[in-house]
Amino acid sequence: MELHEMNFHGQMPVEGYGPGFFRLGGEVFHGPLLLLPSGPEKWPVAGDYAPVLAHADEIDVLFIGVGPEIGLIDLELRHQLETAGLGVEVMSTPSACRTYNVLLAEGRRVAAALIPV
Predict the structure, then answer these.
(1) What is the domain partition of the chain in residue ranges?
(2) CB 41 within 8 Å of CB 22
(3) What phi and psi values does residue 31 have, to the nearest 5 degrees?
């Protein structure tokens, strides 16, 4: 078997998460978090997607982690994100973290909006 070092193309993968926090690049972030091409940002108002829309031309797919269980987002919000050219995938936060990491390692243009578990 041949092993290869993972390349995340300048962005930080999610190294870990737990009740109320995420760990990226050895740093712990408490509360909701946006993972954008410009780097991680605390997300003080979960549901405010203006920072994501500001980077829409750099993102193909946005993973929205809605907590420990899968949930829904507002249809008008989904429409606004899709109109900006973003693919939107809503899933549980653990699934969103894993999927984000895999596609990031593949060099895909991804972002994530994550609500802690």
Answers:
(1) 32-114
(2) no
(3) 90, -175
pLDDT in tens, 47-75: 899 999 999 999 999 999 999 998 889 99
Hey, which CATH number is domain 32-114, 3.40.1230.10, 3.40.50.620, 1.10.150.20, 2.60.40.1120?
3.40.1230.10
Range of lowest pLDDT (13-27, 35-49, 75-89, 92-106): 35-49
Residues facing 42 on adjacent strands:
33
Count CB neighbours of 66 within 10 A: 19
pTM exceeds 0.85 for this model: yes
Q: Say what the alpha-carbon torsion angle 106, 13, 10, 50 is, to the nearest 10 degrees.
A: 100
Yes or no: say if 59 and 52 are a contact pair by the CB < 8 Å rule. Answer: yes
Dihedral, 44, 49, 53, 55 alpha carbons, nearest 10: 40
Q: What is the pLDDT of residue 45?
A: 79
Has residue 114 got a pLDDT over 70?
Answer: yes
